[in-house]
Amino acid sequence: MDETDQRLIAALRRDGRAAVSDLAAQLGISRATVRGRIERLVARGEIAGFTVMTRADVTAAPVRGLMMIGIEGRGTDRIVARLLGLPAVQAVHATNGKWDLIVEIGTRTLVELDDILAQIRRLEGVTTSETNLLLATRRPSARL
């Protein structure tokens, strides 16, 4: 992947619905080149897919947090399976460093968030945790 591909992906991250002609103008390349590069990036798996966030995605779980979890022993797979079965859990990430897992959580209220945190802390094998509330989410602007 060269610099132009990286710039194209960055532009698509800012606005996944941008017209090919707009992308071409932003990047200073032809529309055919943009179209061909997108097709090649998709075929190679560099672009794994496209997605849409709806208002319901954001408002259904306005209280969001990241929970870092420390696990004892070899129970990671079992704990991940339990976490993924909880409706409030939006994603589970394996990581390195102090924490074994980082869990993205979304709930409607702080009381619901507190309840799910307590439920996760009670899972056998979870030894320690730390949770941070997400106060604001900033995304790259649609302009270059």
Question: How would you describe what is shown here?
Answer:
- This protein has 144 residues and is an alpha+beta fold.
- It is built from 6 helices and 4 strands; from the N terminus they run H-H-H-H-E-H-E-E-H-E.
- The protein has helices at 3-14, 20-27, 31-43, 55-59, 76-84, 110-121, and strands at 63-71, 89-94, 101-107, 126-133.
- A 4-stranded antiparallel β-sheet has the order 2-3-1-4, covered by helices on one side.
- Helix 2 (20-27) packs across helix 3.
- The longest helix is centred in the first third of the chain and has 13 residues, at 31-43.
- The protein is elongated and about 55 Å long.
- The two termini are 20 Å apart.
Q: What name is given to the CATH topology of the largest domain?
A: Alpha-Beta Plaits
Give the second-level CATH assignment, the architecture of the largest domain.
2-Layer Sandwich
Q: Which structural class do you get from the secondary structure elements?
A: alpha+beta
| Order of the strands making up the biggest sheet | 2-3-1-4
Distance between the termini: 20 Å
Supply the CATH superfamily name of the largest domain: Lrp/AsnC effector binding domain/regulation of amino acid metabolism (RAM) domain
What letter string, H or E per element, gives the SSE order? HHHHEHEEHE
State the name of the first-level CATH class of the largest domain: Alpha Beta
Strand content: 15-25%
- Average pLDDT metric: 89
The outline comes out as: elongated
> Helical segment tally?
6
pLDDT below 50 for ≥5 consecutive residues: which ranges?
A: none
Total strand count, please? 4
What count of domains describes the coordinates? 2
The helix fraction, in percent, is 40-55%
Which sheet architecture does the biggest sheet show? 4 strands, antiparallel
- Cα gyration radius (Å): 20 Å
